[in-house]
Design goal:
The protein is an alpha+beta fold. The chain has one domain: FAS1 domain (Roll). Helix content is about 25%, strand content about 20%. The protein is built from eight helices and seven strands, in the order ααααβαααβαβββββ. The protein has a seven-stranded mixed β-sheet. A hairpin with a 5-residue loop joins β3 and β4. It starts with about 25 loop residues before the first helix and ends in an 8-residue tail after the last strand.
Amino acid sequence: MKLLSLVSAATIMTLAGCSAGGMKSADEKTNPMVGGAPMYASKNIIENAVNSKDHTTLVAAVKAAGLVDTLQGPGPFTVFAPTNAAFDKLPEGAVSTLLKPENKAALAKVLACHVVKADALSGAIKTMIDDDKGKHPVPTVGGCTLMATYMGDKIMLEDENGRVAHVIIADVKQSNGVIHVVDAVLLPKQ
């Protein structure tokens, strides 16, 4: 069984920081809270993600895969960031196996299947889905192609194995892209 099919989370995540004095900055007002933390559009993906209590597994995976510098880079990136609960849905032992140093390449591949080299807000994704008559292919930096669909306000992403993730928090703006929080880990083709 391939380790790649066990964990996918990668690309990342959520938001951060605390506002001073109880006043919300304009930066903070434009973004939803993620994992109990405000997300700042002026901070990069990593600077925000480390503050989300719902993305500690993703942050650990990004560090173990050596992707911190990449996700702090200029981008733009769209990251479909799985929550801790999404990682918990993987088979028992999958996450700990992927986090081992000898599985760094497999972990990086899983995470890269959550990252797109673009700045795609949910409205733009829905427009692309509509333009493609209900389904839009989303090529990731990891070489995976996700299939995007939506129903009402909810965007869904299906990986090449038929696994579906729902966007549960959309449009979390970052200085180097955008994060969409998802409820499942997307995996490379087995």
